Structures are given as C-alpha cells and as structure tokens.
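Protein details
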Amino acid sequence: MFRLILMTIAFLAIIAINALANILPINGQTTGEISNRLPVLFTPAGYVFSIWSVIYILLAIWIAGFWIRYKKEKELPSRAISLYFILSAAANITWLFLWHYEYFAWSIAAMLLYLGSLILLYLQYDNNERKFTERLPISVNMGWISVATITNISYVL
C-alpha cells in the first residue's frame, strides 16, 4: 500500500506545483510568459496547452483505478509502475523549477528524464491494456511530452 500512497502523493505534488507555477508564479513569471519570450517555430498555439487538463483528469482516473483495485482485490501497482510514475512526477516538477529559474539547458535533461520514465512506464503495460485505468493516461501524457520535449529543445536552440 505504501507504493500507492507514494504515487498519490506524487500526483498531488504534480498538480500543486504546476498550479503554483502559474498562480504565484514561481520566480515571478508564468510558464507561458517564459515560453512566449522567444519566437520559436515549433511552439504549439496557446490553447493546445489545455491538454494538461485532460492529462491530469486521466491520471486522476488512473490513480483512482489503483485504489479501487486495491480495495476490491488487494492488488497493488507493480514496483516498476510505481517507480517510473514517481520518477516521471519528480522529473516534471524538476523541469518546472529549472524552466522558471531559466536553467533552460538543464531543463532539457529533466524533460528527457520525464519522457524516458513515461516510455518505461508505458512499456509496463500489454498492448491490450488501453482502458482509462490502464495505459491510456500514460499514452496521452507520453504523446504530449514527446511534443513538449521537441519544443523545449527548439527553445534552447
């Protein structure tokens, strides 16, 4: 059960830090303000970033699915799933701080770690596991982070 609690805390930390990045904002600037500072040809339109709402909803369903399976069947997520999700959460949060404090080259390393951990997490599922409580949330997150990684690299270049 400890792994499930850690995953839940990691998810809540992602939500909190992402919200604070734009509400406070961290280092006096929002994520979008930093992104819009330089004209980058590969930056998606502003409305596209609303995908984060979809990702967070899907991840909430994903985490809830683990809690439901635990209550019904005492089934816990595997160690690998827990590890890769927590690693992806840590990389996400690290990226936000690096981005907001303008360590852009280092933010690429955090983004690559984020993407790599999502890829490893995705590979923990069989091809037929595509439900909201299985691989789908990870697929959507990984797809967006693939685009975000390219955008981050373009920004730094």
User: Anything to note?
Assistant: The chain has one domain: 2-156.
